[in-house]
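hiii, so i know i said id send this last week but things got crazy w the move. better late than never?? heres the sequnce for the chain we talked about at the cafe, plus the structure i predicted for it. fair warning i was half asleep when i ran it
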Amino acid sequence: MVKIITDSTCDMDDALFKEFDISVIPLTVHLDGRVFRDGIELKLDEMYQLIDKTKTLPKTAAPTPGEFVELFKHFDDDIVFIGISTKSSATVQSARLAAKDLPSKNIQVVDSRSLSSGLALQVIEAALLARAGIQAEDIKSRLKEFRTRVRTAFIVDTLEYLYMGGRCSALQNVMGSLLQIKPMIYMQPNGALGVKKKIRGNRDKGIQALLDELRADAPNIDLRRIFISYNYCEDDVEFLTAEIRKIIPVQQIHPSVNGTVISSHCGKKTISIHYVRKP
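okay and structure toks below
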């Protein structure tokens, strides 16, 4: 059977990692002169307390090729690694270098061209293919098609983190009118973040715009699962969950708390919807 591995930016909870037998390698958060492993050594509350204390935004870093080599050595099975978009991190590049250092192993590396739960959707798909006995090379090939059907869009409460972190250059066009605009950020087909809409008004209008996007695409949505990723906005998650179920009969809606790496770049009260379109 093929072993599926991903990185910590997929923001999946422990139950899903266990259900689908997925292993994970953490990225790191650099803050206050210290280095923390995402999802292991730093909680969200602690990170934001340190941000308030130091008045600086965190830096994040990919795992090194050496760390990937050590992880890959643990498994005798063929491996498929799916990682955060190469437009946002060097994680996939590190995995590719590690795979070259282990020529005797069959390691397939996939750029998800996504992040957070958009990555999680691809990781779960890979795990289901592995369970079905699909070989590593074929899983990689199928994921390259599958990733073109993943849709990710989100609303942030503040643009400061994305703008200062340089993760969305398109925000330069809207920074002059922050108080009037809530941009809807989305994953472009090449894996870069872009501004899909400039929504005038408050946060509620931004959340409604997320629902409008989903409603417009409803006939095309794969009904197996949808993710809602968030931090510090549980009420919004409850609202979105109820509204989504009114729009489509989706089988599973997974609420997913953003980890410290994703939250480092998006800030508090970010919320996003992630789904897959039908073939």
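btw Residues 167-177 have pLDDT under 50 and may be disordered. thought thatd interest u
miss u guys!!
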